[in-house]
Amino acid sequence: MTEDKDKVNAELENETQDLIEQQEEPAQEEKKETKKEKAHKHSKAEEQLEKTELELLELKDRHIRLQAEFDNYRKRTLKERMELLKTASESLLISILPVIDDFDRAIQTVNLEEKNSHIKEGVQLIYNKFQEFLKQNGVKEIEAKEQNFDTDLHEAITKIPAPTEELKGKIVDVIQKGYFLNDKVIRFSKVVIGE
Question: Contact, 190 vs 157, CB < 8 A?
Fold first, then answer.
């Protein structure tokens, strides 16, 4: 009987050991799976982090570009506004130029006929005020007489024989004065060129 007991005990121990091993195998597999799952979850988290970092970089780049575009827009509109203010009165100033031409002719006529008169002084006073008004508004005369002919500033009306050798190819006479408005030609000088 002892042998039977020993056999039964041995069998029980074997069965118990088998049961324990069977229970341990799934637990080990679960541990392996959880390690795999943890590694997988960790790699997913890293991928998500990298993806989020890339999105953040893209958003920062877009933000910087938008700021730069807005700054360029602001500077461009400010520059356009300044140019508009400079040239806003251009048509008015161009309309005044024939009046200045008439004053030039009046002064020449008064200088020929009257030496010291109040008319001459009055005309000269009004002419000087007009000249000052034009200067304050950025209008200045284009120097032309005895200068080299420049198609960007002058308009040739005719050619005449030069009175001296020095005036060949240069402007001999100015028929109508030309004017700049803030370094922009608003009226070309009409000139006679010596040949």
Answer: yes
Q: Helices (DSSP H) in the chain: which residue ranges?
A: 2-87, 90-113, 118-136
pLDDT value, residue 171: 85
Angle at 141 between CA 119 and CA 132, to 5 degrees: 50
Instruction: Check if the beta carbon of residue 104 is closer than 8 Å to that of residue 189.
Output: no
**Residue type for 160, please?**
I
Instruction: Summarize pLDDT for 25-47 with one digit per residue, the tens.
Output: 555 555 555 666 666 677 888 88
Return the SS3 of 151. coil
How far apart are alpha carbons 124 and 139 in whole angstroms? 19
Q: Is the whole-model pTM more than 0.90? A: no
Integer Cα distance of 176 and 185 in angstroms: 14
Q: What would the pLDDT profile of 137-187 be if each residue is shown by its tens digit?
A: 888 888 888 888 888 888 888 888 878 877 787 888 888 999 988 888 888
- What pairing do the DSSP bridges indicate for beta strands 154-160 and 189-194? parallel
Q: Distances in Å between the alpha carbon of 124 and those of 30, 88, 111, 116, 146?
A: 110, 29, 10, 12, 25
Query: Is residue 98 within 8 Å of residue 194, measured between CB atoms?
Result: no
User: Encoding tokens for residue 45?
Assistant: 């988290």
